[in-house]
Amino acid sequence: MPKDNESLRTSVTAMKGKIVPRCRHFSTCGGCSWQDIDYKQQLKLKEEEAKRLLTPLLNLSEIDSSPIIGMEEPWFYRNKMEFTFRPDAILGLHRKGDFREVVEIDECFLSSPSVNGILRTVKNFVRENNISLYSPGKQSGLLRYLVIREGKNTGELLLNIVTLTDNFPEIELLAQKLLGEFPSSKSFFWSIDPYPADAVKITEMKLVAGQPFINERIGNFVFRIRPTSFFQTNTRQAEKLCQLIREMTSLKGGERILDLYCGVGTFSFFVADRALKVYGIEIDPLTVKEAQENARLNQIGNVEFISGDVGKEILPLLQRIGGVEIMILDPPRAGISHKVLNKLLSFHYPTIIYVSCNPRALVENLPVIHAHRYRVKAIRFIDMFPHTPHVECLVKLSG
Q1: CA dist., res. 37 & res. 21, Å (int)
Q2: SS3 state of residue 391
């Protein structure tokens, strides 16, 4: 929770203790922070805070909006979890308020129930085989992370063990054990992370067992997910998000669309059937290859994905195609720098759809957008991360 967010902190403090958290690790684990608040109240707080931030910039009473979109079942929603190994905690999540420490986890209600069984099996395997665990202070020990990815609509699991070095003779045995005990596990990878920073940064990766990807479905589209794929973390809400974007574009059938910071092409696919052409730009070359692969997989022929920096690629693209009618923006959490945003807005787009996972960054960007004579026509809020203070905002602007 942002330190300067006094109104939200006051509201949350007043709610503390109202309900009993479902997870016994809640008081120490930093995986979620709002489990002790009734979910309907969580939604109310998120919407109120987003509106509080936007009110100084917008007359919300004159803008098309609707209540925040929550989840019917706000548990077991995450399709990706990163667990950390430590000598004093074996395997768990970072401690609440102290990222340097790890709390051992026996159960988690954010990922699927099967993940809890995988955690138990891995911890037992570590104990039985006396495998060393990474210590950041000493920068030694073998096991660093266990990353689990899941296709929520397919049930397929991808497991990725991350180690400090390539000296792991038990890796084949662990892979056989996990894929044998958990048939939904379709992929087992082994990755190397030799860097001291406490964040997954892979230099080498090997498929030990199973297939090289798992499948996921959003709506009518199939996506192939690999260990490093960028993908919306909440599959069920991602589909609602895509439908909202599709509705906001109000497509008539002949539009050209820019999808900036496009990832693996999720938004592009949802608008492609009503568009003349969709152009996606993404900085990571591997992600662009996956977007192209997913387009072929779903037989979508009117999308083009470009690898490169948005600020550098936008001019050559628009010079080549002659302009677009709609721009979809889904920037990183920090938002877009004013320099890049001004460059993007120097071209005329009748409609902009801004997707923001951070209302504060949106508030920083809106005055720049307003300066280019764009006005907000509609706002939607959606909860992508239940039991946390985060909220997603969608803004439709016309110019």
Answers
A1: 8
A2: coil
Q: What CATH number has the domain spanning 1-77+234-255+325-399?
A: 3.40.50.150
Which residues are known catalytic residues? Answer: 357
Identity of the residue numbered 386: P
pTM to 2 decimals?
0.91
- Residue 379 pairs in a beta bridge with 395
Q: What angle do CA 181, 183, 184 make, to 5 degrees?
A: 125
Q: What is the rounded CA–CA span in Å between residue 192 and residue 144?
A: 9
Span between the terminal Cα atoms of the chain, in Å: 34
Q: DSSP for 139-188, please give it.
A: TB-SEEEEEEEE-TTT--EEEEEEESSS--TTHHHHHHHHHHH-TTEEEE
The answer to whether 224 and 215 have CB atoms below 8 angstroms apart is yes
Tens of pLDDT, residues 221-265: 999 999 999 999 999 999 999 999 999 999 998 899 999 999 999
Domain 80-220 has CATH 3.40.50.150: no
